[in-house]
């Protein structure tokens, strides 16, 4: 009787060992499949640049069912793009390659030079005002400009170089100016 009980216990233990071996093999197969899938999850940056926003954290689960999730944002800070909003009344005078300069809040005494790269055709409507986005590229090799800075943009409609300049007080159409030694310049 004791022998039969011991044999039954042995058979039961052997069956449990076989069951556990099968579970180990199944877990190892799942591990190999997971490691193979992990090999496909390498993430490569599409460009060299500076990480400007980290939108996912290590260990966070990302769901790519409907849309590819953003993990981080990379920017090339050597050339910045300024987005200016121009009212519809003024957009007709803005052209691509037009010279532009702007200042920032932090450095109001410094002027950055650039040119219009693109006028986007789809406007933003803010408080019933139609605004078109104008993209301006600017050299930023010194790294002073950062993303999302506020800029006051000026479009250069016309300019004259190497011309004679006079003080406004020196130009007059009155007869008083002759008495004071001023030269009268005829108007257009």
Question: In which range does the helix fraction lie?
Answer: 10-25%
Output the helix-strand order: HEEEEEEEEH
* Number of E strands: 8
Instruction: Report the radius of gyration as a whole number of Å.
Output: 36 Å
Low-confidence stretches: none
- Terminal CA distance: 129 Å
What structural class results from the helix and strand content?
A: alpha+beta
- Helix count equals 2
Mean pLDDT: 86
- Beta content comes to 25-35%
For the biggest sheet, the summary is: 6 strands, antiparallel
Shape summary: rod-shaped
Can you give a write-up of this model?
- The protein is of the alpha+beta class and 188 residues long.
- Helix content is 22%, strand content 27%.
- The strands form two sheets. Strands 3, 4, 5, 6, 7 and 8 form a six-stranded antiparallel beta sheet that branches.
- Strand 6 and strand 7 form a beta hairpin.
- The longest helix is centred in the N-terminal third of the chain and has 38 residues, at 2-39.
- The protein is rod-shaped.
Write a brief caption for the model.
By secondary structure, the chain is of the alpha+beta class.
Chart the SSEs and their pairings.
Blueprint: H1 2-39, E1 50-54, E2 72-75, E3 79-87, E4 99-104, E5 112-119, E6 124-126, E7 129-139, E8 151-155, H2 176-179
Antiparallel strand pairs: 1-2, 3-7, 4-5, 4-8, 5-7, 6-7
Please supply descriptive tags for the structure shown above.
about 190 residues, six-stranded antiparallel beta sheet, alpha+beta, 8 strands, two-stranded antiparallel sheet
